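Async update (no meeting this week)

Hi team, since we skipped the sync, here's where things stand on the single-chain job. The sequence we agreed to prioritize is pasted below, unchanged from the tracker. I ran it this morning and attached the output directly underneath so nobody has to dig for it. Comments welcome in thread, and please keep replies under the output.
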Amino acid sequence: MRGIAEANEDLLDEAEVEHASAKDLIAQIRSSDASDPLCNAKVKVLGEYIDHHVKEEQDELFPKDVEDAGWRSSGDNSPSRA
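Output:
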């Protein structure tokens, strides 16, 4: 069975790759012209990508960070020390 630290490390590695990919797509959008036929598609994909990434961090990465730090949820989405 994999350890919590290894699972967290995998999530952090994935987040780093996702951040780099988003930065690359942003650079492509910034350097393109609005008349570029792929410009709108790139903006849409970036939005979808960011929405997915934020949800993934909120649902997977942040709860692990809170748990690892010894915090627990108080039920109102504000952590308190366990």
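Quick observations from my side:
Strands lie at 71-73, 79-81.
The chain has a mean pLDDT of 79.
Reply here if anything looks off.
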